[in-house]
């Protein structure tokens, strides 16, 4: 099958990208590269909402989306429909050419990255055939089956879990994110963009409030109704409130809400080098089911 590619059109292409990711999960879930929640989060947190030059889509002869490539920094993320994996070779070649043109005449970093699940032999073969070698960086993919009851939530006295209260609390919610991920480029405009995404639900934008009302921890849970799965992204806690079990309690409450909605699984990705976060998710009951490994080559 032949494919044609073009730049992303923000006025009409986003539903097709979401549909592709949902189809990929329906076929390969839970071992996927992203959920619709990831896509919504990435779209909302970009620094320049007008610039889409890093994103290109590949369409088959019937007008169906076969895949898309999302570039950022010195790397590319490849997303394809499970029945159209051959398009990934074109996507990878395009990303490399784009980066070569960007680096022409400069002394910029020439190491280029792509990613592959340890279970994805097709992607690993493609990368190896094109001169990539496996690097040490990876993200762990955690899964929480929701067949049974979720353990009870335990909080210190006076702390409460609830959704973000409303517009009057947006500023505090943004500041909490910035404290948790200092240094951070998260802004009020980005948070407003988060709340406008199609997967976003106000009842799943959760915070832990201290006895005096100060926001202490947060998590957004993105619920994919088509596949009945939820993903936590992002999850964080203000430094002064850490080591009190707040984030663990927040995750359990999110899982409980997800189960009430009919969810089958809860997911979260984690930088495998972040030992505290890895231990946190394991303590909640998440199981690591795969890793997304970095692969590199010099351009």
UniProtKB/TrEMBL annotation:
N-acetyltransferase domain mapped to chain residues: 159-299
Gene Ontology molecular function terms on file: acyltransferase activity, transferring groups other than amino-acyl groups
Pfam family membership, one: Acetyltransf_1
InterPro entries per the UniProt record, alphabetical: Acyl_CoA_acyltransferase (IPR016181), GNAT_dom (IPR000182)
Keyword field: Transferase
Protein name (Swiss-Prot/TrEMBL): Predicted acetyltransferase
